Amino acid sequence: MRDSRFFRVAVIGAGAIGQSFAASLFKEHIDEISFLDLRETPGFLTDERYGRLSRIHELVAWRPDVVVECAGHNAVATIVPQVLREGFDVVLSSVGALATPDVRASLSSSARVGGSRLIPIAGAVGGIDALSAAARSGLDVVTYTGRKPPIAWSGTAAAQEVNLDELTSPQVIFAGTAEEAAIKYPANANVAAAVAIHGLGFEKTTVTLIADPTIRLNCHEIYAKSKSGELRISMSNEPSPGNPKTSWLAALSLQQTVVNKVLGVQWVT
Ligand SMILES: NC(=O)c1ccc[n+]([C@@H]2O[C@H](COP(=O)([O-])OP(=O)(O)OC[C@H]3O[C@@H](n4cnc5c(N)ncnc54)[C@H](O)[C@@H]3O)[C@@H](O)[C@H]2O)c1
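YS: structure for the whole thing
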């Protein structure tokens, strides 16, 4: 249960997820929020309720209780290791960055040096708790299928291989491991990575990505077979009001992780 002490959070990335985080939790659960963002002065950052940090050393000097990352893979590779080394726990939104072995190694050695914790969010997908519990009994197979409308794949490798504008039926645009999927589709790697790190790992998790002109929402399906039973999860996610490429649920998952896992607020009926 949370005590009544003062709680301050540094947020790396003031985009759709960062703004929604502040709007939902400021004052109700968090007393002070400061943002570190590469962009100079986006409108949101002139909001005087929030602090502004322009360098990592300012973040360190501000002594937040926890640091929240919602900035992207580059921030995970460059900023997050430094923050972990300084001894601050980091809640990670850009889970897809963990698909790169060098990034994983750098984060885990930094957390060891700093005595800090890296806390990845479940993000846009559910059932992660059941998947990681089932992993304790031994997983035989884990598959993830990501199905999105063709427009969601524009600007990705799929656009070079398939005429996305003329699709009339679902088309598989990728089949392989979670590791290969993250390399070929880095901007879509977050869900596959969440499934991989809580299940069979990047090399043994099978991923299928589909461009589907018959759907409006981003759909995620997970299948796992373990000694303790089978698991099937199916989700259809509305986009975030602030960023059509981000699932609304990802922003909510970050809030839930900080409130329940970091602040330790328990739901009691
Ligand atoms: N886990 C999930 O399921 C899931 C789902 C959606 C998005 N995400 C991750 O969350 C991230 C944020 O999503 P969003 O919708 O808020 O994106 P967004 O583009 O709206 O905002 C990102 C913000 O981060 C800032 N930024 C980028 N690189 C930075 C850096 N190196 N240092 C500081 N600031 C930096 C940008 O200026 C921008 O303001 C995405 O990049 C993605 O990796 C995760």
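YS: worth flagging: The domain at 8-120+249-262 is CATH 3.40.50.720 (Rossmann fold).
IM: good catch. Also The first helix runs from residue 16 to 25.
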